[in-house]
Amino acid sequence: MERATADATDAGRQSLFEGEPRTVLLSLAADERVPAHSHPERAVVFHVLDGEIELTLDDETTTLQAGELARFDGDCDISPYAPTASRALVTLAKR
């Protein structure tokens, strides 16, 4: 078993474990956006822990509230935006 501590005070991205699947804690300040990017050949699970995140996938935007999850293909362009301070757990698994 591996354990990780997600430091709520860290801003940006914090990798929680080594190896696969890649697990990242994403912390965004209010009004912060991650520029559009992709994760080729990955399946992505995006779980909002705190706050709300407007998740843009290619040209479609969906708002996720704390407790909600989305699963999508990492080949699309991804751009999360936080209207309020927010945290999400992002899991990226090889397909």
TrEMBL record:
- What does the organism's lineage look like at the top? Archaea, Methanobacteriati, Methanobacteriota, Stenosarchaea group, Halobacteria
Q: Which organism is it from?
A: Haloarcula salinisoli
Q: Which Gene3D superfamilies does this chain map to? A: Jelly Rolls
Q: Which residue ranges does the record assign to the Cupin type-2 domain?
A: 26-74
Q: Its domain of life?
A: Archaea
Q: Could you tell me which Pfam families the record lists for this protein? A: Cupin_2
Q: Which InterPro entries match?
A: Cupin_2, RmlC-like_jellyroll, RmlC_Cupin_sf
- This protein is called Cupin domain-containing protein
